[in-house]
Write a structure and sequence with these properties.
This protein is an alpha/beta fold. The protein is built from 13 helices and eleven strands. It is 45% helix and 16% strand. The longest helix is centred in the C-terminal third of the chain and has 17 residues.
Length: 314
């Protein structure tokens, strides 16, 4: 099964629950194919949790949800050693981070100390308990959500952690027709749960990841990515521009999207598709623009307009 066919099967299954959000689903699946973590910043009740749960079920991967609260401790995420009185020894109690798909719900409600418990896991795909390093399963993808309309009792994610998300996405409200279909589907299935079937397995996902690694990228397209990144750093509205990790994020996503499009080479449009989603959350703007929701998008859009697109024949 090629990468495009695998993507289509997953999208078709998850669309039983998530209506009218195909572009979003395709971006999320692209992130999974490259082990990329995704931050959802959106209003409550738009289906973020349902999307991740249904995606994990369709993929046949282990799913764990962590509800972030102010009193959540790092050990509640990674686990720890607990003394077993019957055996007279300490035994490892693994935390919910030991799963393929992690939903960190309302991540900005936990303290920075607890948020940082995910840093090593997200970057190194391992955690450390009592000095002992432990590998996390493959694939390992964190989906985090945060509510942009409530600031009281929240702790903004530090730049170091934001930079570890390959994309920041928004679900958005459904159209009138799609929302009516949501109601109709709920009435017809006569229960809250969605009937999502497993349509792939770990072997197929790992095989897709390997095919993506073989997608070719011309040197002038790599230069194109770097020029876009450097343009964001040169913008006067930006205090700190996107890091090299941002360049790598665009590269990974572009290669995966090329494979999804049944190509073994990247085109400029593959790069353009992900620049906003992959870069805006990595930009630290000047203080006057901190409250502007569109300023970061504007910076990236202008960078795309200023940088010449390499000529590449399909």
């Amino acid at each position: 099964m090629d990468v495009a066919e695998l993507k289509d099967k997953i999208v078709h299954e998850v669309e039983k629950a998530i209506i009218g959000k195909r572009d979003l689903l395709e971006k999320v699946i692209t992130a999974v194919f490259v082990n990329g973590h995704v931050l959802f910043e959106d209003n409550p009740g738009l289906g973020k949790t349902a999307l991740v749960k249904c995606l994990a079920k369709a993929l046949g991967l282990e799913f764990k949800r962590i509800q972030f609260t102010p009193d959540l401790l790092p050990s509640d995420i990674v686990g720890g050693y607990i003394f077993n009185k019957e055996k007279g020894e300490f035994q490892l109690q693994k935390g919910p981070v030991f799963a393929n798909i992690i939903l960190a719900d309302e991540i900005n409600r936990a303290s920075p100390k607890t948020q940082s418990a995910l840093l090593e896991a997200m970057e190194e795909q391992q955690i450390t308990i009592e000095g002992q390093k432990m590998s996390l399963p493959e694939p390992f993808v964190v989906f985090a959500t945060q509510n942009p309309i409530e600031a009281e009792g929240t702790f903004p994610l530090p730049e170091a952690q934001l930079d570890r998300f390959i994309m920041k996405l928004s679900v958005g409200y459904p159209s009138l027709e799609d929302e009516q279909k949501i109601l109709s589907n709920r009435r017809n299935r006569k229960k809250e749960e969605f009937d999502i079937n497993q349509v792939t397995n770990l072997e197929s996902i790992l095989n897709a990841k390997q095919k993506i690694e073989n997608v070719h990228v011309e040197a002038d397209l790599e230069k194109y990515i770097v020029q876009i990144i450097h343009q964001t750093r040169a913008d006067t509205r930006v205090t700190i521009g996107a890091s090299p990790r941002g360049s790598l994020a665009v590269l990974k996503l572009a290669r995966a999207w090329a494979a999804i499009q049944k190509r073994n080479y990247v085109l400029p449009d593959d790069i353009k598709k992900f620049t906003i989603s992959a870069l805006t959350h990595r930009l630290l703007l000047v203080p006057d623009l901190w409250m502007s929701k569109s300023a970061a998008v504007s910076v990236v859009e202008e960078a795309l307009m200023k940088i010449s697109v390499p000529v590449f024949n399909d």
